[in-house]
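Researcher: We plan to redesign the surface later, but first we want a full-length starting point. Tokens attached.
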């Protein structure tokens, strides 16, 4: 089918599900620290707390976690296929792949797992966004065969400006602020100069956007995000309307608010809902219940926890009445069931170690909805 995806809830026909094969470690460097800053340093939510001082660049991931993650990803695929959704898969990272090297830095390549992040699907257009983490710089190349087929079927295919990603490219103001969602924080310091410095650059993920037909809600927390949204607004002029919210989270919006159907939001809290644009504050809302501590595996002190406990708000809607929910989150399943949804429980154990839930791991390419005006 031709590329067509305008919203988060209309009947899902085709989707890309990410891959975790050959995931071995996290690369601890400036871009990684900035991206996960809230979740690595907020002591009352996350563990272990990072101590000040020099950190090892490589943070190995235990093989058992990766094996179990791969089992769970294949379970997501089987569930979607059983719901008559066509599933596409990216290319896998070859285990022999060495470090990526650019004029400004080098980093190992990670698998294309959270495929929502580096691509934004808007209607009939694929937009590859400027990556925020160096180790994900070439991630969308592993989706090229899928994108090329949609292009042959008539889709637009755009790549936003690619950043140099020197240390000077990153706006550290969010991480260095004491008035953010994850505070109190340890400041990110000691950026290194480079002959390739050009100042702040566009750095932005598709998961910072909530798609609502003709309207797109976009979270902005840094100058990097703001520059990218300015580019998007010019590029999309006349086709979509962008609505900015500021510092709703450090970056991604889909563990803060998701749209389950026209007129109904799933939100982390009433406080989050009250920070949304006026049109969305009139929508009905489901407030996600506070997750229980035993919803999550226990990890060792050297295992990096990369998400908040509200990661299971990151659900995937198959249509306006059917939603995939982590089977380890019974409170949310009961809440949605009481609101009349058909809840499809799916296993996903290590979402906090790999930074994503069902919405993160998937990129919906074909839905039946169109460019409706839900803000009228």
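Model: Full-length starting sequence:
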């Amino acid at each position: 089918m031709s590329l067509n995806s305008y919203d988060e809830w209309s009947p899902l026909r085709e989707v890309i599900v990410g891959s975790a094969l050959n995931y071995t470690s996290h690369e601890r460097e400036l871009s990684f620290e900035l991206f996960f800053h809230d979740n690595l340093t907020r002591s009352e939510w996350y563990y272990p707390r990072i101590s000040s001082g020099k950190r090892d660049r490589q943070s190995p991931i235990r093989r058992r976690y990766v094996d179990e993650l791969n089992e769970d990803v294949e379970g997501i695929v089987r569930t979607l296929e059983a719901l008559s959704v066509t599933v596409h898969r990216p290319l896998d990272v070859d285990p022999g792949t060495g470090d990526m090297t650019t004029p400004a830095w080098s980093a190992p390549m990670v698998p294309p797992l959270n495929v929502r992040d580096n691509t934004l699907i808007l209607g009939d257009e694929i937009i590859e966004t400027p990556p925020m983490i160096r180790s994900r710089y070439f991630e969308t190349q592993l989706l090229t065969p899928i994108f090329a087929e949609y292009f042959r079927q008539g889709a637009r295919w755009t790549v936003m400006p690619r950043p140099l990603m020197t240390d000077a490219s990153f706006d550290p103001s969010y991480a260095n602020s004491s008035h953010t969602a994850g505070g109190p924080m340890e400041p990110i310091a000691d950026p290194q100069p480079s002959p390739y410095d050009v100042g702040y650059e566009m750095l932005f993920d598709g998961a910072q956007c909530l798609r609502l037909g003709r309207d797109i809600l976009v979270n902005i927390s840094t100058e990097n995000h703001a520059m990218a949204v300015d580019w998007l607004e010019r590029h999309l002029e006349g086709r979509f309307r962008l609505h900015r919210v500021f510092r709703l989270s450090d970056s991604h919006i889909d563990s803060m608010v998701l749209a389950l159907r026209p007129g109904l939001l799933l939100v982390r809290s009433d406080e989050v809902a009250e920070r949304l644009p006026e049109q969305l504050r009139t929508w009905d809302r489901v407030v996600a219940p506070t997750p229980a501590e035993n919803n999550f595996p226990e990890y060792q002190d050297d295992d990096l926890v990369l998400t908040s406990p509200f990661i299971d708000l990151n659900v995937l809607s198959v249509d306006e009445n059917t939603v995939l929910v982590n089977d380890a989150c019974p409170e949310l399943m009961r809440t949605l069931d009481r609101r009349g949804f058909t809840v499809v429980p799916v296993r996903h154990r290590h979402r906090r170690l790999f930074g994503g839930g069902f919405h993160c791991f998937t990129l919906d390419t074909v839905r039946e909805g169109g460019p409706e005006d839900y803000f009228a």
